[in-house]
Design brief:
The protein is an alpha/beta fold. The protein has 2 domains: about 5-140 and about 315-345, Medium-chain alcohol dehydrogenases, catalytic domain (Quinone Oxidoreductase, Chain A, domain 1, Alpha-Beta Complex), CATH 3.90.180.10; about 155-295, Rossmann fold. Helices cover about 30% and strands about 25% of the residues. It has helices at about 40-50, 100-105, 145-165, 180-190, 205-210, 225-235, 250-260, 280-285, 300-310, 330-335; strands spanning about 5-10, 15-20, 30-40, 50-55, 55, 60-65, 65-75, 85-90, 95, 115, 130, 135-140, 170-175, 195-200, 215-220, 245, 265-270, 290-295, 320-325, 340-345. α3 crosses α4, α3 (about 145-165) packs across α9 (about 300-310) and α6 crosses α7 (about 250-260).
């Protein structure tokens, strides 16, 4: 096995370095992976620029990366579900499997979950990375490594839609057309939503949303009138959305979600913004609008893989930029500037593990 294990390590705020690290030794229930694709998430940029994301704070050097796919290079003696050479998507959070949350099927809330590139746990932006075998999902031959990496953000969107109860005929408002907002829109459409309206502050993102199937879009600005926006949402949809999903985290979009949602409907909050917000709760409570938060995803990776493999969801257009591992700093700069949608880092030569050109 090659000894090159070039790795992207964040030492402190704005100090991201590429350096050699030891190739991990695996346990009996783990696999060693030759990493292939690693996408850059908004949380990655937060850690890089500010040293924190929400209440997770960087205190020690941390290997970056959690949206990823790779190829099995070695298996532990107890591993039965994978073989050397299998191409896999990596669900980045491994729970304890023993606590109340794990035993009741809500393992994403496990207090001892080890989640890639979330302090104090290392990520997978490296040549080699080890992971629990049962949290690796074999990719069908026709699914690309890029699609495998994108199962991570797609699972967030699916979880948001499931928390909101999206089903056939629902009218859905999505606030924010960044990567998470777009995958949420794709998931809602796949789950049968009849009409979807999506908002954003960038026209380019709304154009992408239209190409991906949004029925209506609204361009908002910092000085947009809240009451007029609510009215416009209702006019464009021809009715009130019964499910609103905020994928921004900004106070203005959370407020719009609560104000625009149909009485008796559901508002799902995905975006992580300020720890405290000023919201019109009295009106939402009086109209029995359910407010539900989400945290990552749970049991959704197999669903995401099924939707992508069957062609019901096409995530390929989301990848707008490609970089080699050696170009990681440049890739992070592109992500920081908000250029394009999803920035993909190729740890191995691009398409080297794809059955056909991506």
């Amino acid at each position: 096995m090659a000894q090159d294990n070039l790795t992207a390590v964040l030492y402190k705020t704005k100090d991201l370095r590429l350096e050699q690290t030891p190739i991990p030794e695996i346990k009996d229930d783990e696999v060693l992976l030759r990493m292939d694709c690693v996408g850059i998430c908004g949380s990655d940029v937060h850690y890089w620029q500010s040293g924190a994301c929400g209440h997770f704070v960087l205190k020690d050097p941390m290997i970056m990366g959690h949206e990823a796919s790779g190829v099995v290079a070695k298996i532990g003696k107890n591993v039965k579900n994978l073989q050397v050479g299998d191409r896999v998507a990596i669900e980045p959070g491994v729970p304890c499997r023993y606590c109340e949350f794990c035993k009741t099927g809500r393992y994403h809330l496990c207090p001892d979950i080890e989640f890639c590139a979330t302090p104090p746990f290392h990520g997978n932006l490296a040549r080699y990375y080890k992971h629990a075998a049962d949290f690796c999902y074999k990719l069908p031959d026709h699914v690309s490594m890029e699609e495998g990496a994108l199962l991570e953000p797609l699972s967030v969107g699916i979880h948001a839609c499931r928390r909101g109860g999206v089903t056939a005929g629902d009218v859905v408002l999505v606030l924010g057309a960044g990567p998470i907002g777009l995958v949420t829109m794709l998931a809602a459409k796949a789950m049968g939503a009849s009409k979807i309206l999506i908002t954003d502050i960038l026209e380019s993102r709304l154009e992408t949303a239209k190409q991906l199937g949004a029925d209506h879009t609204i361009l908002v600005s910092r000085d947009s009138n809240e009451a007029e926006l609510v009215k416009k949402v209702h006019e464009l949809l021809g009715e009130h959305p019964n499910i609103s999903i905020d994928a921004s985290g900004a106070q203005s979009t959370v407020r719009l979600a609560l104000l625009a949602t149909k009485s008796g409907g559901v508002a799902v909050l995905v975006g992580m913004g300020s720890s405290e917000l000023t919201l019109p709760l009295a009106g939402a409570v009086a109209r029995e609008v359910d407010i539900r938060g989400i945290f990552r995803y749970v049991n959704e990776y197999p669903i995401a893989l099924s939707l992508v493999a069957s062609g019901k969801i096409n995530v390929k257009p989301l990848v707008t930029h490609h970089f080699a591992l050696e170009e990681t700093l440049e890739a992070y700069e592109v992500a920081r500037k908000g250029l394009g949608i999803k920035v993909m880092i190729h740890v191995q030569p691009r398409d080297s593990n794809n059955p056909t050109k991506f």
